[in-house]
Amino acid sequence: MAKLSPRAAAAAGLIFYVTLGSAVAGALYSVISFPQTPLFAIWRGVITGTSISLLIAAFELSLASGHLRAARHLPVGALLVLRTVAYTVLIIVGYEFSRLVARAPLIIVGYEFGPLVVRAPDESIFEFDHFFWQTVWLSVGVSFVINTALEISRLLGGEVLLGLLLGRYMLPRVEERIVLFVDLKDSTQHAERLGDLKFHRLLNAFFEDISHAVLISGGSIYKYNGDAAIVQWRPKRGLRRGRALRCVRELHHRLQARGELYRRRFDLTPGFRAGLHMGPVVVGEIGDQRREIALSGDAMNTAARIEQATRELGIDFLLSEAVAAKLSAEAAAQLRSVGGVAIPGKAAKLALFTADWRD
Fold first, then answer.
1. Is the same domain home to 273 and 212?
2. 118 in a domain, yes or no?
3. 142 and 15 share a domain?
4. 106, 306, 315, 355 from 275: Cα distances, Å
5. Is residue 35 in a domain?
6. Which of 77, 229, 254, 335 is the residue whose CA sits 20 to 30 A from 185?
7. In a 10 Å sphere around its CB, with 0-12 CB exposed, 13-18 middle and 19+ buried, how is residue 18 labelled?
8. Regarding beta strands 272-286 and 317-320, do their DSSP bridges make them parallel or antiparallel, or are they unpaired?
9. What's the pTM value of the predicted model, to 2 decimals?
10. Do residues 200 and 152 share a domain?
């Protein structure tokens, strides 16, 4: 049996839990709508929730990596409308499908095979009745709210959106984070040769590949800064199975695998430099007209300095001893020491390591 990729496994797990939650929600909604026939309502609600969630999951997978992937580059407003319309249609299709499937066993064996509570309510399939239109308008409203939240989350980042909504960081606090600074190698030369607009397209493609690596390693992109991206993990998540280290390795392999695409579109094979560090950061809301959750402190500065040291040492990836010492034996076995390196702003030399991605 073929082994699922980390990304496919994560998607499968998410679909399973969303489908399970949708089945429960569908059962509750159906019981509220048809209290006179609770057992049938639960049966039909489970089918409704499961059908709708699977249809929407198929649509989202197609949007993420299938035939509809190009639609992700639509303007935010257009994508919001597309998703809302698609969700509404899929909810209606799933609702009508559940009417037919839920009634099928009762039609076959008859309505009187058990207690009266299993009987189906008196409604017709594909009839535009009051309950149908109630479901339509509810679907439109729910679809719009969900997709607005998804688009805002996509713009801000899920963790930032949740933090702002809950006010978790209204008062700044110190938290431990793993931080990765990664930037496009030789970006100045690329920009001069390609021109501003084409270089922007190169950056977008590069950041998409970073997003892929971050997604399968369980991290989150804190922000984009020029030709660089800043990625962060909470220590427990980033150290588990060497995920933070794996993010860099995955990006390396991803760029190699897509080398032909880059050469065809931009006549180059992109490289990157990266610095990885772990330590305490200050996390807090900043700004007034535009608010965000900012990370600051010594760990952020050190990670940036480690990334800058890659230029001086001619090594594309460096990580600090703070990360290396916490990795599992298996992950640490991939590392080799480059010795103590003088880092601007640090009185003592910093012990740095690198990894070999040739395998």
1. yes
2. yes
3. yes
4. 63, 5, 10, 12
5. yes
6. 335
7. middle
8. parallel
9. 0.70
10. no
Residue 142 has pLDDT above 90, yes or no: no
Q: Taking the CA atoms of 91, 96, 97 and 99 in sequence, report the sign of the dihedral they define.
A: positive
Do 232 and 348 lie in one domain? The reply is yes
Instruction: Find the mean pLDDT for residues 273-279.
Output: 94
Do 205 and 108 belong together in one domain?
no
Q: Is residue 165 assigned to a domain?
A: no
Distance CA 227, CA 282 (A): 24
Domain check: are 23 and 150 in the same one? yes
Q: Are residues 27 and 148 in the same domain?
A: yes
Angle at 209 between CA 205 and CA 213, to 5 degrees: 165
My answer on whether 148 and 184 are in the same domain is: no
Long-range contacts of 304-308 (CB under 8 A, 24+ apart): 304/181, 304/275, 305/275, 305/343, 305/344, 305/345, 305/346, 306/181, 306/275, 306/276, 306/277, 306/343, 306/350, 306/352, 307/181, 307/182, 307/183, 307/228, 307/273, 307/274, 307/275, 308/275, 308/344
Task: Tokens for 132, please give them.
Answer: 């149908």
Which residues, listed in sequence order, are joined to residue 273 by a DSSP beta bridge?
A: 183
Which DSSP symbol is given to 175?
A: E
Q: Are 29 and 44 in contact (CB under 8 A)?
A: no
State which residues form the domain around 20.
6-156
Q: Reduced to 3 states, what is the DSSP secondary structure of residue 209?
A: helix
Across 6-15, 75-84, 160-169, which has the greatest mean pLDDT?
Answer: 75-84
Q: Where are the beta strands (DSSP E) in the chain?
A: 173-184, 220-225, 228-233, 272-286, 292-296, 317-320, 335-341, 350-355
User: What span, in angstroms and rounded, lies between the C-alpha atoms of 282 and 293?
Assistant: 10
CATH number at residue 304: 3.30.70.1230
Count the alpha carbons within 13 Å of 281 in the hemisphere toward its beta carbon. 23
The reported pLDDT for the residue numbered 327 is 86
Percent of the chain residues topping a pLDDT of 70: 81
